[in-house]
C-alpha cells in the first residue's frame, strides 16, 4: 500500500474515532432553558425557524437575530442556538435557547469541536422540526454543514454582515454559499465606501439595516430614571465594546478622563458594560450601567463615544445621537474604520484614531452640546435604510414558502 493510501486510511480512522467519541462528549457542552434538546412546538401551520449565532467578539450576531426573530413573530416561531457566553439575554428577550460551548471556550481543536457540534445538531434536528435555519456568523461550521449534507430539505439562510476587510480571505465562501437557500446582508452605512472582498460578490440579497428596538426611544426623563441617574446631570455614554478583541481599558480611561477634564466635571461619563464582559467598575471619573439593549436609553446622553461595530453605529444613526467613533482596528474581518469614515461628517459625528484626536473631538462635542446645536448632516437620510429586522424576516418567510 502506498504512503498516500496509508495516510488516507489513517485520516478515515481518526475521523471515525472522533465521531464515536463525540457521541458522548457533546452532551457536556450545552445548556439552556429547554429540556432534552426539545424546543416548544410552534402553533399550527406556523413555520419553526432556528437561529444559530456564533460567539463573536461583540453582541452583533445575537442582536441582529433577536431583532429579526421579534419582527417575524407573527410569521414564524423562533428558537435559538448560540455559542455566545451572553446567551442569557436571549431568554430575557422571551425566546427559548440552547448555548453550545465554542471551540475557544472548550480549548478543543477545530476538528474535535466540529464533531461535537455535528452530534449535537444531528440530535437536535431529529427531536425538532425546523423549516429553516438562519445562521449569523462569519463562517458556516463544518459540523453544521455535515448535518445539512444528510438533510438537504432543511433550508439554510445565512445572515451575513458585509463590510469585510480587504485582507479577509474568501477562499471558502463558494463552498459555504452552496449550502445556502439564501444569503441576507443588512445595509451598512459603510457600504458606500466598501471595496472589500464581499463588495464584489453578487450572491447575497440586500435587506434593510437591522437594529434591535424593543420599544420606542424613552424620553430623557424616563431614561435617566430607569438608569438611576440624577435628572439634573449631564451625561456622555461610553460604549467601546467588551474588550474581547484587545484590551480597551486604557482607551476607555483616556476617554472618561478627557470628558471630565474638558467639561470641568459638568458632564459625567457613563460606561455601558457589555453582557459579554466582566462587570466594569466605575471610578471617580465615571459610573457604569448594564442594560441590554442600551439603545432605548440614548436620550439620556448628550453624546456617545463608541466603537464602530455594526450594532453601535446603526443605533447612533437610527436615533440621531452625536458621536465620537473610535474604530477597533484589530477586528478580524469587520472593517470598522471604513464604517467610521462613512459616518464621520465633522459636524455631528467624528472619528478618532489617536489620543490627540480623542481630546479634540470630545471638545467639539462638548461645545456642540453646550450651544444646543441641531445641525442637519448627511446622516439625516440614513435612517430610511434601517428597520428592526422586518425586511429580513419577510425574506426568511419568503424563502420558507419557496
Count of alpha/pi helices? 13
CA-CA gap between termini: 50 Å
Class of the largest domain, according to the CATH hierarchy?
Alpha Beta
Q: Roughly how much helix do the residues carry, as a percent range?
A: 25-40%
Provide the CATH superfamily of the largest domain. Answer: Glycogen Phosphorylase B
| Structural domain tally | 2
The low-pLDDT segments are: none
Average of per-residue pLDDT values = 89
Q: What does it look like?
A:
With 402 residues, this protein is α/β, with parallel strands linked by helices. The protein has 2 domains: 3-159, 3-Layer(aba) Sandwich (Rossmann fold); 220-385, Rossmann fold (3-Layer(aba) Sandwich). The protein contains 13 helices and 16 strands. It has helices at residues 3-25, 60-71, 88-92, 103-106, 110-127, 142-150, 173-177, 220-226, 249-263, 310-318, 336-343, 355-370, 390-401; strands at residues 30-32, 48-53, 77-82, 97-100, 132-136, 155-159, 180-186, 205-207, 209-210, 234-239, 267-272, 287-289, 303-306, 323-325, 349-351, 386-387. Strands 1-4-3-2-5-6-7-8 form an 8-stranded mixed sheet. A 6-stranded parallel sheet has the order 12-11-10-13-14-15, sandwiched between helices. Helix 10 (310-318) links the parallel strand 13 (303-306) and strand 14 (323-325). Helix 1 (3-25) crosses helix 5 (110-127) and helix 9 crosses helix 12. It is globular and about 70 Å long. The protein starts with a helix and ends with a helix.
Amino acid at each position: 500500500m502506498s504512503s498516500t493510501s496509508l495516510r488516507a486510511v489513517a485520516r478515515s480512522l481518526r475521523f471515525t474515532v472522533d465521531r464515536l467519541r463525540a457521541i458522548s462528549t457533546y452532551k457536556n457542552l450545552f445548556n439552556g432553558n429547554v429540556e432534552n434538546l426539545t424546543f416548544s412546538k410552534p402553533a399550527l401551520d406556523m413555520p419553526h425557524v432556528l437561529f444559530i449565532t456564533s460567539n463573536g467578539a461583540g453582541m452583533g450576531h445575537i442582536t441582529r437575530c433577536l431583532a429579526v426573530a421579534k419582527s417575524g413573530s407573527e410569521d414564524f416561531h423562533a428558537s435559538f442556538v448560540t455559542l455566545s457566553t451572553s446567551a442569557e439575554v436571549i431568554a430575557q428577550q422571551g425566546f427559548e435557547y440552547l448555548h453550545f460551548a465554542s471551540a475557544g471556550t472548550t480549548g478543543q481543536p477545530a476538528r474535535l469541536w466540529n464533531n461535537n457540534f455535528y452530534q449535537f445538531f444531528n440530535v437536535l434536528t431529529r427531536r425538532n422540526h425546523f423549516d429553516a435555519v438562519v445562521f449569523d456568523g462569519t463562517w458556516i461550521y463544518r459540523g453544521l454543514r455535515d448535518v445539512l449534507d444528510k438533510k438537504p430539505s432543511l433550508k439554510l439562510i445565512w445572515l451575513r454582515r458585509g463590510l469585510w476587510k480587504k485582507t479577509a480571505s474568501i477562499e471558502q465562501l463558494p463552498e459555504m454559499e452552496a449550502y445556502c437557500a439564501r444569503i441576507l446582508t443588512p445595509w451598512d452605512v459603510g457600504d458606500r465606501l466598501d471595496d472589500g472582498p464581499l463588495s464584489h460578490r453578487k450572491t447575497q440579497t440586500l435587506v434593510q439595516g437591522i437594529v434591535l428596538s424593543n420599544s420606542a426611544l424613552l424620553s430623557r426623563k424616563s431614561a435617566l430614571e430607569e438608569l438611576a441617574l440624577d435628572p439634573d446631570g449631564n451625561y456622555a455614554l461610553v460604549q467601546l465594546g467588551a474588550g474581547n478583541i484587545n484590551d480597551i481599558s486604557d482607551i476607555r480611561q483616556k476617554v472618561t478622563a478627557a470628558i471630565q477634564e474638558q467639561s470641568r466635571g459638568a458632564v459625567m461619563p457613563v460606561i455601558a458594560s457589555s453582557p459579554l464582559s466582566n462587570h466594569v467598575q466605575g471610578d471617580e471619573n465615571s459610573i457604569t450601567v448594564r442594560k441590554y439593549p442600551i439603545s432605548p436609553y440614548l436620550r439620556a446622553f448628550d453624546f456617545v463615544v463608541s466603537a464602530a461595530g455594526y450594532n453601535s453605529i446603526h443605533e447612533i444613526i437610527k436615533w440621531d445621537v452625536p458621536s465620537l467613533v473610535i474604530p477597533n482596528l484589530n477586528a478580524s474581518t469587520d472593517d470598522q474604520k471604513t464604517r467610521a469614515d462613512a459616518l464621520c461628517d465633522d459636524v455631528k459625528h467624528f472619528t478618532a484614531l489617536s489620543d490627540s484626536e480623542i481630546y479634540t473631538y470630545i471638545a467639539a462635542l462638548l461645545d456642540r452640546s453646550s450651544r444646543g446645536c441641531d445641525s442637519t448632516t448627511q446622516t439625516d437620510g440614513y435612517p430610511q435604510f434601517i428597520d428592526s429586522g422586518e425586511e429580513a424576516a419577510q425574506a426568511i418567510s419568503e424563502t420558507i414558502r419557496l
